[in-house]
Design brief:
elongated, mainly alpha
Length: 110
């Protein structure tokens, strides 16, 4: 998984830290990772459509603002349920930026 930012959430190093901090087991950690990826996959179709139909500049601005707010808000998470909700929202915001930017310039692997 090399989408922008998703490797940070799903990387083996940080996932172990998340498990220890929230005292969750492997199945709960898998659900957390899967929910983030599922939101990315499901909403990539919607954001691809929006990027094709509307001005990409404004679509990217909305994505960047939502990504920033979600990242800032995740600093204040206190429970595992809230973290799961933010992981889903994070998948949405990363999808938003990734799909629209790829439509503009193909991913080069950097």
């Amino acid at each position: 998984m090399h989408e922008h930012g998703h490797e940070c959430l799903l990387g083996s190093g940080i996932l172990k830290d998340i498990q220890e901090f929230y005292s969750i087991n492997n199945s709960q950690a898998g659900l957390l990772a899967s929910s983030s990826i599922a939101s990315f996959v499901i909403f990539s179709l919607l954001y691809g459509y929006l990027g094709d139909r509307f001005n990409r500049k404004y679509v990217m601005i909305v994505g960047l603002v939502s990504w920033s707010l979600i990242g800032f808000g995740s600093s204040f998470i206190g429970s595992q349920v809230s973290f799961s909700q933010f992981a889903i929202c994070y998948g949405l915001s990363v999808c938003h930026l990734s799909v629209v930017c790829k439509a503009r310039a193909p991913y080069t692997g950097c």
